[in-house]
Amino acid sequence: MATENKLDELKVKAADAKVQGEKALEDLKDNVKEKQTAGKEALEDTVDELKTKATNVKAKGEKALEDLKDNVKEKQTAAKEAAEDKANDLKGKFEDAQHSLQDKFDHLRSEAAHKFDDAKAKAAELKDEAATKLDELKTQASVKFDELKKTATDKLNKLKNHDAGE
């Protein structure tokens, strides 16, 4: 009996050990399932976090790109406006210079016209003086010629008279 009792005791212990082992296996399986579920949830949370971060980074990148595009457009617009302002400024200076040159040209033309009129008047004066002098010289030459002619005639007559008297 003692063996049978021992055997029965061992069977009970074996049955208990089997039940405990099965329970431990079930606990282990539940634990693994829980860990798998927790790991899966943690992984999903991490993936969700990464997706959120990626979305945020993408949004920041898109905003930075838009800001950069806007900045480039602003600089292009500013450069274009500056170039237009400079072109308008140069155009204004060119027009001012053109007007100034035209004014100087008109002034010089007017001055030249006055000088030409003065020169024409002086030439007319000189022509009149020359005509007057020429008339005076003609008169003087005519008088002198008449005097010389008379002197020559007188001398000729004297010589004729002198030759006739001999």
Keyphrases for this structure?
single chain, 166 residues, mainly alpha, 1 helix, 98% helix, rod-shaped
Summarize the entry for a quick read.
This protein is mainly α and 166 residues long. The chain contains one helix and no strands. The model has no long low-confidence stretch (mean pLDDT 88).
List the helices and strands and how they pair.
Elements: H1 2-164
What do these coordinates show?
There is one protein chain. By secondary structure, the chain is mainly alpha-helical. Helices cover 98% and strands 0% of the residues. The longest helix is centred in the middle third of the chain and has 163 residues, at 2-164.
Q: Tell me the total number of β-strands.
A: 0
Major β-sheet, in short? none
Rg: 69 Å
The arrangement of helices and strands along the chain is H
What oligomerization state is this entry in? single chain
Summed up, the helix count is: 1
Distance between the termini: 232 Å
pLDDT < 50 stretches: none
